[in-house]
Amino acid sequence: MSNSATNLPAGWISIRLGDLYTFEYGKSLIKGARIADGIYPVYGSSGIVGMHDQYLIEGPAIIIGRKGAAGSVHYSTDNLWPIDTTYYVRDNRNLYLRFSCYLFRSLNLAKLEASTAIPGLNRNHDYDETVLLPPLKEQHRIVAKIEELFSELDKGVEYLKTAQAQLKVYRQALLKHAFEGKLTAQWRVERHAQQSVAPAKAGAQPLNDMDSRPTPSRGLALRGNDEVGSRDDEPLETTDTLLKRIQQERAQRYQQQLADWETSGKQGSKPKPPKLPPPLTAGELAELPELPEGWVYSYLADLGDLGRGKSKHRPRNDPRLFGGIYPFIQTGEVKSANRIIRQYSQTYSDFGLQQSKLWPTGTLCITIAANIAETAFLGFDSCFPDSVVGFSAFKKTIIPEYVDFFIQAARMRIEAYAPATAQKNINLETLENLVVPYCCLEEQRQILDILEERFSVIDQLSQTITTALQQAEALRQSILKKAFSGQLAPQDPNDEPASELLARIKVERLVSQGNVVVRRKGGRS
């Protein structure tokens, strides 16, 4: 049954939020003044932020984020202390407080707020929101139905989040096993068995002949280094061969840089000969996992060229820097990319390029500020600031994607080098001294094939879970929408109508403000 004149459910009224509720300000209680072993929760805008031995208001109460997590809604059954970044709503005998809590959540109070530099909630804006109020008994029926449905929904969400967490653990376990040689242990056994059946004719190929080896091209297009490797009937490369290759490729890179410098008319500083970094000490090696035969540890700086991006001009937001044809990416684009950066939102002008550097397509970008150790390959030539490091692999030594996956595996270890400041950052030296376990190119390709195959399945499952969580949240909002439009619980014609609730609320407000004198029986006030 509904009120045909207003198209409202029977007994319901349409009312301004501010005519029902008062959002009261919390009170400051700095962290140093709180008593950690107190029994009363201290609420900030994001929820419980500590404990104290005194309370400001009696529970139950609703706490609403005013600054910071503006619009967030929390419910406390205990006596509590809401701090000054919150509003709170006291219990009222004419309104079921749990109903009020769900009502506030359905309104999405943060969206009602005008845009400001600092997220904040203005209660006067929220007071003007129009809501529908049912009879008090129906409020209880609505809450019972909401909590019944939410209970089942929460079980499903908990299961999905558990599965999501397990996928992350599995992903990290795969990476860990990959760089300990465990993923390719069986492959090495089979590879050695092939050698015993068809022994190599002449052992390892001399270093100066390796470029001519024909091998099939597999994997990502960015790999670009399949010209080096062993045939199935050749023995795997030894540790000594791997180390010699590093030295040779570093020397070749230096000669190329020197030739380029001379071709350019000796512009800029003359390239310096490569410095051989000190070998890992016995103590350092003892702290690292033992590697399979044929694997070796090297510093990341040994495996390619590392360099910070450039953005020398100040201020960095000078309009003259932007609006040209040269893509300019920052840490956000690296973090949001799915392995390859394919989009950019800013460009440098010729003036901007002069104070920066254009890095080539395929450069591995590694973030060292704000988002630590996020990685992605450039899908186009681009500039980036010094909060991003570019890595160009010695492709006869190591596959760039191998380094990419290793940094993903080592991210937590890399983050640990960042100082505990508001914005974490690391320096170039941290990456240069990153110890990387690696093997011959043939085994690197096997590792990448395994990781890419399994990660493809993980990514599909992860996307399925994300979609299911989004659907669960949409269903939650649908339940609330039905609840507060009278479609979730039945109406009872015997319920006291909400209009009478409103009348009592108005009287009690006037009394609390001292504008009405309530006379007791016998005529005394």
From TrEMBL:
Bias kind Basic and acidic residues: ranges: 224-233
Lineage: superkingdom: Bacteria
Question: Is Nucleus there in the keyword field?
Answer: no
Q: Which UniProt keywords apply?
A: DNA-binding, Restriction system
Do you know which CDD domains this protein is assigned to?
RMtype1_S_Eco16444ORF1681_TRD1-CR1_like (cd17282), RMtype1_S_EcoAO83I-TRD1-CR1_like (cd17267)
Q: Could you mention a single GO BP entry for this protein?
A: DNA restriction-modification system
Q: Which GO terms describe its molecular function?
A: DNA binding
Looking up InterPro entries in the UniProt record yields: Restrct_endonuc_typeI_TRD, Restrct_endonuc_typeI_TRD_sf, Type-I_RE_S_subunit
The Type I restriction modification DNA specificity domain sits at 10-155, 292-469
Ranges for the region named Disordered are 194-238, 254-282
**Family, per entry:** Belongs to the type-I restriction system S methylase family.
User: What protein name applies here?
Assistant: Type I restriction modification DNA specificity domain-containing protein
Annotated source species: Nitrosomonas oligotropha
